[in-house]
Amino acid sequence: xxxxxxxxxxxxxxxxxxxxxxxxxxxxxxxxxxxxxxxxxxxxxxxxxxxxxxxxxxxxxxxxxxxxxxxxxxxxxxxxxxxxxxxxxxxxxxxxxxxxxxxxxxxxxxxxxxxxxxxxxxxxxxxxxxxxxxxxxxxxxxxxxxxxxxxxxxxxxxxxxxxxxxxxxxxxxxxxxxxxxxxxxxxxxxxxxxxxxxxxxxxxxxxxxxxxxxxxxxxxxxxxxxxxxxxxxxxxxxxxxxxxxxxxxxxxxxxxxxxxxxxxxxxxxxxxxxxxxxxxxxxxxxxxxxxxxxxxxxxxxxxxxxxxxxxxxxxxxxxxxxxxxxxxxxxxxxxxxxxxxx
Length: 342
Fold this sequence. Notes:
By secondary structure, the protein is mostly helical. It has ten helices and two strands. The protein has one domain: Rhodopsin 7-helix transmembrane proteins (Rhopdopsin 7-helix transmembrane proteins).
């Protein structure tokens, strides 16, 4: 039985070349097809989200501004990060040089951090919409939404800068890295263990903890209100028969807000599910000192999250499906199409 993979070198005439795994033609075609489908779905899906929210005036709300910002991050993933990763997945070597390797790695962490921080903003938005509906329009205004989005993207650039400059590594970790990991054809930006741990906590674990606690509070309040409404129906029925009137009114959560909250919580859940292995890996590998094969750095599980979000919107948002039809059939170019009710 023949081997399904042959081992060669990324650079045949280089003394310190990394090893290259040569996949059979069928395997290469399957990898290109699957990863190419993820890239196209990410690009076109998020482009539809961006066009929909920016074009239709009805959708110009703080919640959708956060969704728009998240779609921009996902679109950049599909256009900037995924194509080089697709090439490395198939070729098992990095052929784009050291400088672009740093830029590529920095963009990856920046976009991932920006996506997560946008999800935190969405969680804050949903918290006020459900837990404090009377304060929602005072606290979460379009101006506040724009400020939070700008702050999220600004903070997301910090870990990217950390990865770009080598002085965040200790000398011992740099020496270990040079002795064990550097070879021609590998793209790995090494960080000192403490730096890697700090970035993982600030860019993933802390925001994830904030989101989970907010959504836990949201669903607790929603459940309590659902129970109180159910009890109020029986009370009003009894008082109707007894001739008494109930003058006490409490603010209630609309069905649309509940549905939006459930949909966006699914988006959050998909993100955490996709990126948890990546961030566990980002802590374990530097601390253990094992760098692993190049294929471990092709985080398609995390990237696939960018393709999943438009699918979630299509499944749960009626306005997204309706807007999609308007765009596909070209009605978006009609006069006053931005004022359509969707």
